[in-house]
UniProtKB/TrEMBL annotation:
<dbReference type="InterPro" id="IPR050426">
    <property type="entry name" value="Glycosyltransferase_28"/>
</dbReference>
<protein>
    <submittedName>
        <fullName>Glycosyltransferase</fullName>
    </submittedName>
</protein>
<dbReference type="InterPro" id="IPR002213">
    <property type="entry name" value="UDP_glucos_trans"/>
</dbReference>
<dbReference type="InterPro" id="IPR010610">
    <property type="entry name" value="EryCIII-like_C"/>
</dbReference>
<dbReference type="Pfam" id="PF06722">
    <property type="entry name" value="EryCIII-like_C"/>
</dbReference>
<feature type="domain" description="Erythromycin biosynthesis protein CIII-like C-terminal">
    <location>
        <begin position="303"/>
        <end position="406"/>
    </location>
</feature>
Amino acid sequence: MPRILVASLPFAGHVGAMTAVAGELVRRGHEVVAHTGAKYAPRFTTAGAKWLAWSQATDFDDADLAATFPEVGDGKGVRGGKANTELVLFGTGAGQAEDILAEARREPFDLIVGDHLAFGAALAGEVLGMPWASVAVTPLSLTSRDLPPAGMPVLPATGPVGRARDAVLRGLAKAAYRRFADPMHNRMRSAMGLGPAPAGSGLDSLYSPHLVLAQGVPGLEYHRGDLPSHFRFVGRLAAAAATGTELPPWWPELAAARAEGRPVVHVTQGTLDVDPNDLLKPAISGLADRRVLVVCTTGGAPPSALGALPDNVRAASFLPHDLLLPLVDVMVTNGGWGGVLAAVRAGVPLVVAGASLDKPEVARRVAWSGTGVDLGTGRPGASKVSRAVLQVVSQPRFRQRAQELSVSLTAAGGADAAGGLLEGLLAARR
């Protein structure tokens, strides 16, 4: 029986995609060992995988990063983003690799499959000299001659002047990578006895050169004429919906509201940036007097954290998207890629307020794809949220585009397609 290592950073959004991959590989008869933090071990063992703890890698709780890495603070702004990159991403990479290599010495792996930001999987694959695969759990950050560099607050150019602009920006980004990212990257590589990465390569060299499974589809991801052939879009990677989920007593109100012609608006900040003052409370305030039913999820906090709720607002800590989204007319979110893919997969248009990590990139892709509105900030005012929601509800083109891309996401195959591609890589190695 082939033995496969599946590695995931212990963040909820990453774990959702990687448990889908792990579960599919188990279903296909492989022995799967999951390397992730203790908080998410049960998610993988429930899917049938064995758990390999983060021992040399510094484990953490994604709901309170600052408890382990005080410099990260709330994760926002340039300082928070820099600390997150240095301490969480690059800082834990060598420890992840040491954990994986120790287990491989005990019993070899036939394949390594890593969340593309779990850098230890890439390092271990390189040290072992074996093929390994990346799962892109966020939008692609790969450098392209057709795009501005990832992280720049601009959309891809459409004319000669814009293309010249993007070329200049790519040059500036490469210089910045040499100065800021290369030292962190090379310290991590040196700890594993590896030579330096290509100068100014950013995260490009941390994608697998053998197989990259990219969440999303063309049309929701920017077009790249130079995308390598081993990058394959697989749609949305999500574990099967949980059965027996207890739903709140007000659940029937969702279908009743739609039957009355009242749009249902879902507001979520995911599970990482969960300060309700950022988006939940402005959305509640802005939509309080509108003829809509607002359904909020807090990402773990009790609904009482939102304070007194207007008559048209319902709240819960968590709700299963697979059950909720078919009853929703628009989703307001801070831009987690997994949640956005879930909405588009359900044909639901979006309003996105993204500020940290990859979330601004997600917001720009939503606007570029025609599936929703980018608010351009992570802390919008109440009136700005209200206007955007009414715009999306009143203009059918947003829902039509989401439904078109829903068809593409379904056709891409999800976990089943990912499993087939990974077995192809495994067969080529064997």
